[in-house]
Amino acid sequence: MLNSYLSDTIKTTPAYINKLRKLGIKTVKDFLFYFPRGYQDLSGLTTVAEIRTDEVNTLKGNIHSIVNIRTRTGKTLTKAIFGDETGRIEVVWFNQKYLKNMIRAGDSVLLSGKAKFAFGKMALMSPTYEPLKLDQLHTGRIVPVYHESEIITSKWIRSKIHPLIENSEKITDTLSSELKEKYQLIDLKDAIKIIHFPKNQPDLEAARKRLGFEEIFELQITALKNKWEWRRAAEKKGLTIRIEKDCLKEILDILPFKLTDAQQQSVVDILNDLKKPYPMMRLLEGDVGSGKTIVAALAAFNVIKNGYQVAIMAPTEVLAKQHFKSLMTLFAKFNIRVDFLAGSLTASEKKRIIMGLKTHTIDLIVGTHAIIQDKVDFANLALAIVDEQHRFGVKQRDILAGYGTPHLLSMTATPIPRTLAMTVYGDQDLTIIDELPPGRKEIITRIVPEIKRIDAYRWVENNILKGNQAYIICPLVEDSDAIEAKSATQEYERLRLVFPNLNLGLLHGRMKQSGKDDIMSKFVKNELHILISTTVIEVGIDVPNANIIMIEGAERFGLAQLHQLRGRVGRGKEQSYCFLFQSTAESRTDKSSSDQFSKNLTVTASGQISLAAVAAPASSPQKTNQQITDRLKAMVNHTSGFKLAEIDLELRGPGEVYGVRQSGIPDLKMASLSDIELIKLAREAAEFSLSSSIKPF
Ligand code: ADP
Ligand code: MG
Question: What is the pTM of this model?
Fold first, then answer.
């Protein structure tokens, strides 16, 4: 029964079955494991006499009359009179004329909805209704709310899961009784029943705890297995790397800056790992601009001085090229042979490099993931470094294992709090760089209303006249490179008219690699004043002379992504600016925030720019989604990626913040990744239950 197809077990139409299938729900079991995203507590009943306008009221009583009325604009209003022992109230539904056939005068019902005071009387607006029964599903209880999509509503899901819920009895538990007892967890079958139809809050909490625990526990088990297997794989190889103190001192001496404490600590962590008889698997996490590259470079340097090879991989060719160039410069004096490998190389170039890696005439190869995809053979690879690791999957790691399981250093700028990182990257040891190099000026961020757009363009122009450069980021077009490229191209054409005297460049994902390289190198050389780009420049690009970034359609980006983009500026000595534009129609007409901005940003007659460093403009266009406004305001008020991540987690939850596409963080169904206590327990439990079987060290 658990594995029966829903098409055979629930009464519905193919349209619904298809929709469910798209959500990955095919069987009864799948359906039972489709958990609510939240709950509405409608268990507290009120009476007509007690109705309040500021909250959802749940009422029990009778329908006295019900009629459909057509409005002058052609819409249908369904109006009913509802009453209980304390009084009567009008109920209004919009465009649901079928309700008149479902609810009859005289019916006993439960209604849940908000009340509004209009035309001198109170009315209950579009309430959820349910006939009074022994077992209420939709009102008068703690009501589960599911992710809704097109035709699938929470109400529909509740009514379809309810008859199936007893099948939970047959679910076999996944945790041992020992663990359940130790961590005071209820049985899986009970948790499933409760999660859909909780009778009270304590039950619901117990079910949540059980299911959340399980989710994290599974993640931890997988992570720990990965970690220990990685170690064991190379156990006997012993790629033990000495610390080459003198050489390191020599290279540190020629750096144009002193390492920050956090950078030094990171280097120490890594060098200590490299000494061990099993391969490192470490994640270096540091905010944009915190200087991860030099840490990686020093590790690479030390390994090469031990006589081994090193590979550095970046997610895009643009970024890989940049690393290649800076490492060439850095290592120029040290007799290290650096080369570059990526998809765009010609066949003969590739051949030469593949040969060089095989015969160890190349010490350091910098490139894209093509390095490990092109059947490259290393003479003796001892360290693989992966920049912006969230785009680097377990699969690639398996390939690396094929090269004798080298030490692995991953780097990410995704600011994930430590406990969270422990969960999602539980297979790696973690080093966090928590300080920026000294002397950085804080980037000034402003939300710019539409009517100040021209001023902002003039601001950009004035800065460019002073010798600086700017980025303009085009809106995110979900899931379509092609449309995104097209709209970026249009924006580019439009901006050429706005800035007729400046050199503009365009960069998007659909361009040929050679074209991208060309544009990037022109921008680096300051031959282009403004780079109009999609998010392809999101990661890693380092052009210190660029000090303004304008982001169009900013509300479409997550905070983490906005922060990454903003991190493209603020790298040089000049004061940097980030201007956020919204693409919503509302923002174009919002007056209050534009007034705010005009106070902050003024271009005087003489062309002088002044920007009062006042607090965030309190732009809160009424119609704009409050969450969007809060998010953009957070960008204005905070510069720390970690702080922003925290806020974003609060506003949107981990699933959305660290979408799978961006960071490999799973979209957990039940566990809260901010529940540190639960994470710790699950981690401990995973260590405990694996320790007897596979832990190698
Ligand atoms: P990210 O961590 O974002 O990869 P990068 O490694 O690109 O950061 O470094 C950002 C910039 O800061 C680079 O221009 C780099 O040369 C510079 N930098 C790195 N470490 C320091 C330091 N300790 N002091 C001053 N500048 C530094
Ligand atoms: Mg970087």
Answer: 0.66
